[in-house]
Amino acid sequence: MFDFFRKHTRVMQFALVLLIFPSFVFFGVQGYSRFMGGGNTVVAKVAGHDITKAEWDNAHQAQIERIRRQMPNADAKLLDTPEMKSQSLDGLVREHVVLAAVDKLHLVTTDDRLQRMFATDPQFAPYRNADGSLNKDVIGAQGMSSEMFAARLRQDISMRQVVQGLASTEFAPLSATTAAIDAMFQQREVQIERFETKDSVAKVNPSDADIEAYYKDPKHAAEFEAPEQATVEYVVLDVDALKKGITVSDEELRKYYTENESRYSTPEERRASHILVKAEKGATADERTKAKAKAESLLAELKKPQTVFADLARKNSDDPGSAPRGGDLDFFSRGAMLKPFEDAAFALKPGETSGIVETEYGYHIIRLTGVRGGGKRSFESVRTEIEDEVKKPLAQKRFSELAVEFTNMVYEQSDSLKPVIDKFKLELHTAKDVKRNPVPEATGPLANPKFLAALFGNDAITNKRNTEAVETGASQLASGRVVAYAKAHQLPLAEVRARVRERVVQVQAAALARKLGEERLATLKKTPATPMTGAVQIISRAQGRELPRALTDAVLKAPVATLPAFVGIDLGEQGYALAKLTKVLGRDPIAADPAQAQTSYAKAWGDAESQAYYEALKLRFKVDTSGAAAAAASADAAASSAQDSSR
């Protein structure tokens, strides 16, 4: 089918013109636009101005692109969720609201202010040349002319004025900050008694009726559900699969081995010690003569049987790095030392001592103490490695040639994977109990969310067709089909009875713990002087003593007009706790720095006031986003209809 389109491109273009042109005449341009995608559907109104679905889609796409630039590896599916789309619409509405305020408040940015902001604001530095002028290459790369850039900058500055005056003038008196921070980081002295669920487990014994009732309760159905799963088969077209079908002659492999001989050789390394008599480039002729004479005398000393090279190097070498080690330089390869030094070292045999070697640092006496490396791996030992290296580029080229054909074949012959297996000599993989989402131990295509999404698509499950070819890795395509499919379903009670009973025991034990705690709380409230078993401790938000969050919050929120005060806390499946508050103390010593706290407190107020002002502007300019809900409902209905028709 695809071959026909490729071979008859001009015919198809003519046919499309015949189909499309009359529709423009009949419906009009706007009608055709609505027919094709509903781009003119109004999703929101601000100050009487319509925001269309097309604008929303463009804004959402722009937001996705911004996130992708910041996080290149972000999952595309996570960026295209209803929540993200809602954020895009909120941002678009906010922009229209602020623009409406700019118009109503006559907030005009003059040319002088525009130029001053551009010249001084650090955020515009990437757009400025060295002389302060506009860098047209930079804005051109973003698809803007200088006029477009100036208009956008003028608009941004004007929009900033709407809320900047409010946000930048927040003021938090020290007294208000102190009161707020004191309340936030207040400490309270308490005694706590815990009624743990685990302590009540042995006291409950659920009946068969209790177990059956819990199992049949729709709220608990998911707890005993077998997940949706499928048995699948799939094929993978990648470089590794194609390498198996490529044959390389022994002659080609040996040629590659010869041409890359250095890769299969271990570089020779030498270990040497030396004595340096320093005479650097700036030394006078007389100084160099004296240095050489000293080196010659040391060389003569070395020829005496009783002389130890390392001892002589420690006492006489001018190399501060090696002298303490007896002149040892450890192992080095060619290229690591100065050329005269290297040539001399690589000309020696182990245990031999050189004559006087002159370099730009002075005069050296070198003794070779070790040799390693220099070996060469045989062709037979690296044959498999070479074969893989030679086949890889050939397979990569082959993959590029076959990718389109593979993609077309799995689509056009969607009833079976056998055609692509036979055509490309691929291996058929099978897997049981495959879930819709990757499991931690999954590898290959079954670890790829896009491939799993295709396998669990309506067409693959209902019609048992091949999935489209999915890119599951670099130079890797996979297509699969569902052999057997099982929906998520509740397991029979007989299979999960032990699990159900365990859950019922936990629920009943938690209820018993709560009952015991509430009874104890009632007693304490009647007789506050009753002693408690819990140790006295101090709690604050900064240090909750590893207590459950609900317990800490309840203790710090409890009224303390009359002390002692008692509070009971339901900890859900953990049980119950009650606390006796005996003292209210000052701010926790580990709380935030007062100056920093005041700044944060002021900023929080500024943000709150700005948000309140924005909400007031929304009311003033009559923001209506009901069209967005209608558009979303319409899209859901269309998707549902498409799924029904495919069944």
Molecular structure report:
The chain has helices at residues 2-7, 9-37, 53-70, 76-79, 82-105, 111-120, 136-141, 146-167, 174-184, 208-216, 239-243, 250-259, 285-302, 309-316, 339-347, 379-412, 418-424, 449-455, 458-462, 493-526, 549-557, 594-620, 626-646; strands at residues 42-46, 49-52, 186-196, 225-226, 229-238, 269-278, 328-333, 353-359, 362-372, 429-434, 470-473, 476-486, 489-490, 536-539, 565-570, 575-587. With 647 residues, the chain is an alpha+beta fold. Among the domains are: 1-30; 107-167, no CATH class; 186-200 and 497-587; 229-248 and 382-487; 266-372, Chitinase A, domain 3. It has a four-stranded antiparallel beta sheet. Helix 3 (53-70) crosses helix 5, helix 5 packs across helix 8 (146-167) and helix 12 crosses helix 16. The chain is extended. The two termini are 23 Å apart.
Radius of gyration computed on alpha carbons: 40 Å
3D shape: extended
Major beta sheet summary: 4 strands, antiparallel
Percent helix among the residues? 40-55%
User: What structural class results from the helix and strand content?
Assistant: alpha+beta
Terminal Cα separation, in Å? 23 Å
Q: How confident overall, as mean pLDDT?
A: 83
The number of distinct helices, counting runs of at least 4 residues, comes to 23
Order of strands in the sheet with most strands: 14-3-16-15
Regions with little confidence, pLDDT below 50 for 5+ residues: 1-38, 636-647
Strand content: 15-25%
Q: Total strand count, please?
A: 16
